[in-house]
Structure formats: C-alpha cells, structure tokens
Amino acid sequence: MFEAHTLYSTELHTASAVVLPIRRYQRFHLKQLIPLSIWFVEGTTQCAGESPKRAVFVYTEYCDQQGNNRAVCQCYPYPEFLLQQTIENWLKQAASRPLQV
Question: pTM surpassing 0.70?
Fold first, then answer.
C-alpha cells in the first residue's frame, strides 16, 4: 500500500544538509599573482571546556619561490545553508590572504 505525503516548508528547512564542493578551485593570488589550489573540508573544532562544533576548513595550497609546497588553512563556522555566494566569498578571502613566499 502506498501512502502519499505532502512536504511542508517547515519540514524542508529542518533537513538542512550542507554539501561542500568536492573539486579543487584554481585561482591566482590577488596581489602576488601566484597560482593557488583551494579546497574545502568538513571537520570539528573544540575549545577547552566546550563541546565540539562543526566547521568548514578552507585549504589554500601554493608553491613558494624555492619551489616548496605550502598550505594555509582558514576555519569557518559550519553554515546552516550553503549558498554559492558563501563559497565565492571563501574563495575570494583565500585568494587575498597573505602568503609566505
């Protein structure tokens, strides 16, 4: 037997799964014009005496002047709803962050 169910808008908002992009983004640093490889990872952070909190880590990888691979990581609170604009903002911040070259 099949039972039909109508979803209400409140039910849609309670199931808020955030899906981070899997691919790496290729950008150039805005000031130093160094090629960057940027990707996103889910994780948790925990301060002393607090419970773990979900977070998004944005990794930026690049090569310095000696040819060594370097990486910079920035942590952001896990968003309730992931918008394309949020991803673009994270990419823009990653491309403007100071680098050690």
Answer: yes
